[in-house]
Design goal:
Length: 292
């Protein structure tokens, strides 16, 4: 069995330009926010994800899919371009306290060998980070996840996302992102997917300083995600994060959120989202070229 490495999910430049379509209930809420009359059915989510995979994967180095709504369908429909690698999310979202994702466990229904057979190269795990929850529990989940990936020759991608503590209302998001990196930035995964400091806002220098601080604590290649960042600010965020040491992005909303709920999805993805993804890919290549 050949072991996949992060080279299998990068562009020829060595940078990551990866697309996420693994949003679940969050995507349903995006349809409602876009004015789509409820109910937003599972099929509507699946159709959007499959369309996004077909239209956008030729411009991505990898695409992240979820078991719940689209993994089977993209495989059966050959929706992913040959030049693009498949990443499968193995996070099972547990709702609670009025939010769709209150906690996360490893989804035991995802079979790593089946993922390989279907052409998958990597798995991704969301790790919710709260200052008042047990770090040991998070670390042991990440360790189990890494073992699952590496025993099956797959790349392991962790995605620590910070949340306010369960108790009390003191929450410093920026500090939490750093603290999560201190805890999980050397946890043996192959790639670290992180929230952009300052949500991509502020001066270039402020963003650079915050990103450099983050870089100091991540002892593996890292990429930024686009959730929480205004899509107009995301290209700059990629460029600044890469100046600080990141190697690209794994993002969905910055690419396709503006076309959610519009009629003629395929056309809108082609006309609106493809140019965004192409531009982001160019930024990644430009920034990687500067490192040589």
């Amino acid at each position: 069995m050949n072991n996949y490495t992060i080279k299998d999910i990068t562009r020829p430049s060595g940078g990551f330009a990866m697309l996420a379509v693994d949003q679940r209930e969050a995507m349903r809420l995006m349809f409602i926010a876009a004015g789509v009359k409820a109910p937003v059915t599972d099929q509507m989510l699946t159709d959007f994800k499959v369309n996004a995979a077909k239209t956008l994967s030729p411009y991505a180095s990898a695409i992240l899919v979820d078991q719940q709504f689209c993994y089977r369908q993209v495989v059966e429909q050959n929706a992913i371009a040959k030049s693009c690698s498949m990443i499968v999310a193995v996070d099972e979202f547990i709702p609670g306290n009025g939010i769709p994702v209150d906690s996360v466990v490893i989804d035991k229904r995802v079979d790593p060998q089946a993922v390989r057979k279907d052409g998958g190269k990597a798995l991704k795990l969301l790790v919710l980070w709260r200052s008042d929850e047990d770090p040991q529990q998070r670390l042991s989940m990440v360790k189990e996840f890494n073992q699952l990936c590496h025993a099956n020759g797959l790349v392991s991608i962790i995605e620590p996302v910070v949340r306010p503590p369960r108790r009390g209302d003191q929450f410093d998001r920026e500090q939490a992102i750093i603290d999560a990196a201190k805890e999980l930035g050397d946890s043996g995964a192959d790639l670290y997917k992180v929230e952009m400091p300052l949500s991509g806002k502020g001066s270039q220098q402020e963003l650079l300083t915050a990103s450099q601080k983050l870089n100091e604590h991540i002892n593996m290649p890292w990429v930024i995600l686009s959730s929480g960042v205004d899509e107009k600010l995301f290209p700059r965020a990629v460029s600044v994060a890469m100046t600080a040491g990141a190697s690209g992005f794994l993002a969905g909303r910055a690419v396709w959120s503006s076309v959610v709920g519009l009629p003629d999805t395929e056309l809108m993805l082609r006309d609106v989202s493809v140019p965004k993804l192409q531009r982001l890919g160019e930024i990644v290549d430009e920034m990687m070229a500067r490192r040589r």
